[in-house]
Structures are given as C-alpha cells and as structure tokens.
Amino acid sequence: MTACKEVSSFFENQPKLFENFKDDTLRQRAVERNVEIMGEAINQMLKHNPDVALTNAKAIVSTRNRVIHGYDSVTPEFLWSLIIKHIPLLQQEVEVLLQNNCTAE
C-alpha cells in the first residue's frame, strides 16, 4: 500500500504528463523500485493465501520479475501504463482488503 501511495506522490505537485515522465530517469527508477516492492509483497501474500482477491496478482509478480531481471525491456511507456492503469487499481483493491481484514478482527 505504501509503495502505491509513494508512486502517486511522485506526481502531486505537477501535472501527470508522459512527456515529463519519459525524460525523468530519477522518477522512472523510483517507480521501478516501488514496482519491485509491490510485486514482492504480493508474492509473499500469495504464498500465504493463493486466493487473495487482487485482480492482477500474478501479473504484478511477473512485472516485478520483469523489472528486476529484464530491466532492458522496461521502457518509460511500460512504466507509464503501470502508473496510469494498474497501480491505481491495485491501491484500491489493497485498501478494500485492509478494510475487510480490520473489520473482520
């Protein structure tokens, strides 16, 4: 959850524009690191509960592996699609999981 919020925070004080992101290596590397963290966290969750209710759980783990092992195939366009489409959905789903776990206790 923290990694999702951190990626969002990278764009708080500026418009979320690909034109700015594609030339910002520092921000790209920060997104990559957070994707690694998200993927590893989900990988650990899946080991404990393979039925965890996340839409793209296995794809997120695969993305983590791509970032770590296939770093030469990670383009700004690929990272941007994560930022725009996939990380916001993951954040919403994790928030629901956390709320459900807190109310279940």
Distinctive features:
105 residues, single chain, 5 helices, globular, mainly alpha
Structurally, the number of domains stands at 1
> What is the helix/strand order?
HHHHH
Mean pLDDT across every amino acid position: 89
Query: Any idea what the radius of gyration is?
Result: 14 Å
- Class based on secondary structure composition and strand pairing: mainly alpha
Measured by DSSP, the beta-strand proportion falls in under 5%
Through-space gap between termini: 20 Å
Oligomer: single chain
Coarse shape: globular
The residue ranges in which pLDDT falls below 50 over 5 or more consecutive positions are none
Main sheet attributes: strand count, strand direction, barrel closure: none
- Kindly state the number of beta strands: 0
Percent of residues in helices: over 70%
What is the number of helices?
5
Write the layout of secondary structure elements.
Blueprint lengths: L1 H8 L8 H4 L3 H24 L8 H13 L6 H29 L1
Helix pairs in contact: 1-3, 1-5, 3-4
What does this structure look like?
The chain is mainly α. It is built from 5 helices and no strands. α1 (2-9) packs antiparallel against α3, α1 (2-9) crosses α5 and α3 packs across α4. The radius of gyration is 14 Å and the shape is globular. The model has no long low-confidence stretch (mean pLDDT 89).
